[in-house]
């Protein structure tokens, strides 16, 4: 249920874009800490109680436009944040504050899945805060979603600089309210939220002592990372899981095209893949397999189930027939379970689909293309085409260089080693987005904590009984580093 919903959510982000405009969009997978089926109510999660119940919800009157003094900039909207003070050591001892920075979704899902804060609240004696990103969930300006998403003149306030300014304002507000002026704040985020966390530390060092940026591809902008990085890793994950599986997938694209080109071929494809609605062309099927199955399985290739292995067991097993397309269908069933239909369902777009489309079209232009060294048909990234599509959707073109202009990214080690401090970039190298992550230490306090077999944002999810040693070790390392930041800060504070 949840599994399927998230699945469709991902599918729709990508595929609806592909159909609304041109093919380019389908290759930008969603950034999110939460993959299919990583929920709090997993039976093998370690802590017994559901921490969501210990959170109290608040709303802050947020300024619409932090960077402008025109009268309309002073408009406000209600921004949601949640606080858990059960474990907090209190203002008197300047006990720490862990703040989770929301990303491109309502905050409710993060609260259920991102357990890193709650799992470590006792040992840090920390206040826990989750803040929702503007334009998602219950944090919508202009009175309603419909109004807020109407056109670019309303969407214009929907960007990362405004979002981290929102977080700054709310953190200051909370600390004032709690009279916790000297409590150190550590910001935590995953994926796009991880980028926000690292950028927050760079832009607001007077508010956050440090940042844990989990699976944050801050280098997947402009020309910093080769655009084929993402799908090269997807392919490598499958090749490492099973050579025959990799080869079957690689051979399947031509098979699909060949069948589609036959008279009656599309209805045969629809039947073969048990589509929810008849296919009108093969690209919907191919996009779905590519993004909602292979890319999603690789990005969230996590223990104990390791979905890439699951897909490959379905493909190699050949339970639906020995031919290539039957094997691929077997992979789909193994991954998604027994459903009444697969692919090409007509469902409404999620908030994330709609919001992330604007974000990727305006500033978060992550240039993902497909090179020659993968199990997918080559499909290089075409920036001109991308910008044109965005312009036709919103009337305003993409600013593909703004992220690196505003936050940096080029020559990151050279630039940050003497300027910045206290950032953990964590990555799992099986995560396709790790290709745009910071994978080497930049200085003593800007460090890369990575795992060979890890996937997207694993480290910030709730700890589970089934967690492998390397994941436990990764989290331990992160906590050790954060404690060092806090200890140094307290030493400085005592001299102050
Ligand atoms: C928030 O703004 C609304 C409308 O502008 C106002 O009625 C309300 O009093 C404000 N709340 C706070 C806590 O400032
Ligand atoms: C915090 O310190 C103040 C002043 O020293 C004291 O009055 C108050 O009781 C303390 N609060 C707690 C919760 O310890
Ligand atoms: C799907 O259904 C088949 C036949 O009914 C069954 O053998 C198989 O175990 C089911 N698979 C899953 C993943 O539920
Ligand atoms: C899609 O949204 C419309 C309008 O909000 C609603 O009436 C409809 O039931 C939704 N359909 C699905 C499949 O959720
Ligand atoms: C990929 O192969 C095509 C056709 O052989 C070639 O034109 C292109 O330059 C290659 N691209 C890369 C990045 O090697
Ligand atoms: C990076 O920093 C971490 C934390 O200080 C350390 O454990 C690790 O050995 C460093 N890695 C390298 C390659 O120096
Ligand atoms: C990663 O997984 C592979 C395959 O399961 C295994 O052989 C290897 O030892 C693992 N590496 C680490 C560092 O855990």
Please give the domain count: 2
- Helicity level, as a percent range? 40-55%
The total beta strand count reads: 8
Strand order of the largest sheet: 1-2-4-3-5-6-7-8
Would you write up a description of this structure?
By secondary structure, the protein is of the alpha/beta class. The chain has two domains: 56-222 and 404-493, 3-Layer(aba) Sandwich (Rossmann fold), CATH 3.40.50.1820; 226-399, Four Helix Bundle (Hemerythrin (Met), subunit A) (Up-down Bundle). It has helices at residues 2-20, 107-113, 116-124, 145-148, 152-155, 160-177, 192-203, 229-241, 243-261, 265-272, 283-299, 307-317, 324-336, 351-362, 383-394, 402-407, 412-419, 469-495; strands at 56-63, 76-84, 97-101, 127-131, 185-190, 210-214, 423-428, 446-451. Helix 7 (192-203) links the parallel strand 5 and strand 6 (210-214). Helix 8 (229-241) packs across helix 11. The longest helix is centred in the last third of the chain and has 27 residues, at 469-495. InterPro entries: AB_hydrolase_fold (IPR029058), Peptidase_S28 (IPR008758), Ser_carbopepase_S28_SKS (IPR042269). It comes from Salix dunnii.
The gist of it:
The protein is an alpha/beta fold and 496 residues long.
């Amino acid at each position: 249920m949840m599994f399927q919903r998230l699945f469709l959510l991902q599918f729709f982000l990508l595929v609806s874009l592909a159909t609304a405009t041109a093919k380019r969009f389908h290759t930008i997978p969603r950034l999110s800490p939460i993959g299919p089926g990583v929920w709090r109510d997993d039976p093998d999660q370690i802590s017994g109680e559901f921490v969501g119940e210990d959170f109290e919800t608040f709303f802050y009157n947020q300024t619409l436009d932090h960077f402008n003094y025109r009268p309309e900039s002073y408009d406000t909207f209600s921004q949601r944040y949640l606080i858990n003070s059960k474990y907090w050591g209190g203002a008197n001892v300047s006990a720490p504050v862990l703040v989770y920075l929301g990303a491109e979704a309502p905050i409710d899902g993060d609260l259920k899945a991102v357990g890193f804060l709650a799992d470590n609240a006792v040992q840090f004696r920390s206040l826990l805060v989750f803040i929702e990103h503007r334009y998602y969930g219950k944090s919508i300006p202009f009175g309603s979603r419909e109004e807020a998403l109407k056109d670019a003149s309303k969407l214009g306030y929907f960007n990362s600089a405004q979002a981290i300014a929102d977080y700054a304002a709310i953190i200051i507000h909370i600390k004032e309210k709690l009279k916790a002026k000297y409590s150190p704040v550590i910001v935590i985020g995953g994926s796009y939220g991880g980028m926000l966390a690292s950028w927050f530390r760079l832009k607001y060092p007077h508010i956050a002592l440090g940042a844990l940026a989990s699976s944050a591809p801050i280098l997947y902008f402009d020309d910093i990372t080769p655009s084929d990085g993402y799908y090269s890793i997807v392919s490598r994950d499958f090749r490492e899981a099973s050579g025959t599986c990799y080869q079957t997938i690689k051979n399947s694209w031509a098979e699909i095209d060949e069948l589609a080109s036959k008279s009656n071929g599309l209805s045969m494809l629809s039947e073969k893949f048990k589509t929810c609605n008849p296919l009108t062309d093969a690209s919907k099927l191919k996009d779905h397999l590519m993004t909602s199955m292979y890319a999603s399985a690789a990005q969230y290739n996590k223990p104990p189930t390791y979905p890439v292995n699951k897909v490959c067991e379905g493909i190699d097993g050949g339970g639906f027939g020995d031919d290539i397309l039957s094997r691929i269908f077997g992979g789909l069933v193994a991954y998604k379970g027994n459903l009444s239909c697969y692919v090409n369902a007509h469902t409404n777009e999620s908030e994330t689909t709609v919001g992330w489309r604007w974000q990727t079209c305006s500033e978060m232009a992550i240039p993902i293309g497909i090179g020659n060294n993968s199990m997918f048909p080559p499909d290089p990234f075409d920036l001109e085409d991308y910008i044109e599509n965005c312009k036709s959707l919103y009337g305003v073109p993409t600013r593909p260089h703004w992220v690196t202009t505003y936050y940096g990214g080029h020559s990151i080690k050279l630039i940050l080693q003497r300027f910045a401090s206290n950032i953990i970039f964590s990555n799992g190298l099986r995560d396709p987005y790790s290709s745009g992550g910071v994978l080497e230490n930049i200085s003593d306090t800007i460090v890369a904590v990575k795992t060979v077999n890890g996937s997207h944002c694993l480290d910030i999810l709730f700890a589970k009984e089934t967690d492998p040693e390397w994941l436990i070790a990764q989290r331990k390392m992160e906590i050790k580093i954060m404690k060092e930041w806090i200890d140094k800060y307290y030493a400085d504070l005592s001299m102050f």
